[in-house]
Structures are given as C-alpha cells and as structure tokens.
Amino acid sequence: MIDSHGHPITDSGGPLDLSSINVQLVTDEESRSERARTSPSRLSHELLGVRLARYLGCEVEEVPAARAEASRDWPRYVRGLFMSANLRGLVLDPGWNLDATTAAADSFAEMVGCSVRPILRLEPMVDRLIAAGAGAGEILAAVEQAMRGAPASGYFGFKTIIAYRTGLAVDPYADLAAADRSLQDSRELEVRRRGKALRDLVLRRALGWAAELKLPFQIHTGYGDSEIRLGEANPLLLEELLRTPEGLAATIILIHGSYPWHEELAFLTLAKPNVHAELSEFNLHTVATVANRLERVLEMAPAARVLCGTDGHGAPETYWLGALLIQEAWAALRDRWAKQGARQSWLSEVETAIMEGNTGRLYSF
Ligand SMILES: [Zn+2]
Q1: Range of the domain at 80
Q2: How many angstroms does the Cα of residue 129 sit away from the middle of ligand 1?
Q3: Which residues fall inside 5 Å of ion ligand 1, going by CB?
Q4: Is 81 domain-assigned?
C-alpha cells in the first residue's frame, strides 16, 4: 500500500501512551489527566491495545513496557511496523511537527524503508506573515514564490488546513482590497482566526498556481483534532470555490473522507472530474465502521479518484493501525461486492487503484 496522507513520527521510542492517540489536544495537566482517565473507555484505544499486545507478544496491560523494550532499536522497530502493515510509500505533510527529524523526507524514508513524497502546507507561512503584520499583496507574493519554488525544494504537492483557520466557506469573490480590510478588521483575534478574505483569496490563487505547476492540492475536510470547528469543515462549503476557474483547473484532493460527510464527498468526487476523495484518519478513531465508511464513498465515487491513507502521526503505530484497518475493511467490502456480482478482475483493478495506483500517479511515486 502507498499511504496517501501522513505526518512525521517521534524521534525515539520508549513506553507508548495509548491515550495520546486521540483527537483531544491537551494544554495543561488537568486536561491531560482527564484524557488519560477516559481514553481507555474508547473502542479505538481498546482495539489498538489488543492488537499491539498480540504484535508484541504480551498482555494488554504490559503494552507500554513491552513497547519500550521492543523500540530500543527505534528504526528497526518502526520499519517492522511499516513492513507488517504492507506500507511501501507515503505522502508526508511535515507541517504537523516541523521540528521532528522525520519532517525531512529523506530521514523519514531512511527510517521506515519506503518512498516518501512531501507536500507543502501553506498555513505556517501565511500565519507567520499575518502575525508579522504583512499586507495582503505581500502575503500573496510570498505564497506564490514558495509554491513556484516547491518542485525544486522537493515537494510533490500542496496542502491547506483553512478548515482549521477561517473555515471552508471560501468566498470566491474576495479581492485584494477585501483581503487587506480583513487583516485590519481582525486585529483583535488570534492569528488562526484572522484575515478570512485574505485566506480565501490566497486559497483561490494557490489552486491556480498548483494547476499551472501540475501538482496536486490537498484540502483538509471533515473532523480533525479538537481545534477544528467541525461546522466549518463540511466539504459542501467548498462548492463556490470549486466552480471558479482555479477550482476547476487544480487537481484537488479532499482529505480524511470528509468525516462525517462521506456521501457529500462521494457526490463531489463523482460530479467534479478534478476532485479526488482521500480516505484516512477515521480509520484511527472510528475503528468499528471503516468498511462502512469506505463503502459510502466508493459505491458512488469513481475508484479511479479515491485514495487510501492513514493520517499516521507521532506514534508509528498510528500508521500501522490505520493501514491494517483500511486494508481489512477493503477486503471485507470486496467480498461483499463479489457476492453482489462484481467481477474479481474489476475488484482487483479497484483495489490496485485505491491502495496504490492513484496515489502513485498523483504524487509521482
Ligand atoms: Zn493529517
């Protein structure tokens, strides 16, 4: 499998805190201990513990210690997980934890023993420039320069997390004057909520530059960590942007299965020939229904534009669990569709496309 979406992992092993594999961000000791207290009551925590215990050859209660022991040789341990999950390549967004050693594609590739294709996340630059008091024109020019230089810097695509900033209801008519005004008017807000018109304009232009560069563009949709305002992450909010010349020209990948808006994602993918559906992240947190979610997208969207991934991050076990669960889910779905009459040859083509072929083609593996 080639993983269509992941992030850097930690630089070293040690005991694994299963409760840290969670969408709930912790900011202080109180929230950390609350998370530690409630996390074991989540199904995903339970099933990851049980599977890891089997993998490590120990009891569930012994997982943290057994993991510490098994991960003494960290690269070897990580490589073992990737091999056992059948992962041979991954698309890396280093923008989550830029400080990790594995934020550099080369070191990640060396550690896990598979090919890595990094993509450039736009928000770290935009946020930094807004915080520094830059104007809209200056920010647009900086983003354009970074994007045009991306191929030479080793990037194979782009990503926006505007859903985490001012939301997916992008105004396609935001112009430079409105962008500057939005920066002025939002001075009292935290940076992540500042400059909606500016961020809308940057995204529309960025899609145009990505189209010129012929590089794919990931848009975060659906749930994420607890910073997200979920109501602002519905992929249908993107419809006006997707109708602009830039929105029609770019190769767009809506990520994370747009959880919980799978049918909405399936429709956009079917209706718009440049839109792709990327399925990841929910296979870490809604582990009982992965096949169901896969089916809700795949029964409508063309498999030729569906990509499977993990959203692995931090602990390498997230890559391992996400990859295993989505492959098992597909196997179950494949059986069901065969019983309904789908031919084995067609099912094999779908499997290759969603597990490797589409990601391989879009990111030049
Ligand atoms: Zn991610």
Answers
A1: 1-119+312-365
A2: 23
A3: 311
A4: yes
Q: Is residue 258 part of a domain?
A: no
Per-residue pLDDT reduced to its tens digit, 73-132 = 999 999 999 999 999 999 999 988 888 888 888 999 999 989 999 999 999 999 999 999
| CA 6 to ligand 1 center in whole angstroms | 6
Query: Residue 326 has which token pair?
Result: 């989505």
Q: How many angstroms separate the alpha carbon of residue 331 from the centre of ligand 1? A: 24
Burial string for 102-131 (b: 16+ CB within 10 Å, else e) reads bbbbebbbebbebbbbbbbbbbebbbebbe
Q: How many angstroms does the Cα of residue 312 sit away from the middle of ligand 1?
A: 7
Cβ atoms of 47 and 37 closer than 8 Å: no
Q: What pLDDT, in 10s, does the model give residues 130-183?
A: 999 999 999 999 999 999 999 999 999 999 999 999 999 999 999 999 999 999
Residue 345 has which token pair?
């040859």
Residue 21 CA to ligand 1 center (angstroms) comes to 13
Please indicate, yes or no, if residue 242 is contained in any of the structural domains.
no
Number of domains the chain contains: 1
Say which residue the tokens 């990037």 belong to: 155
Its pTM stands at 0.97
User: Is residue 248, in this structure, part of any structural domain at all?
Assistant: no
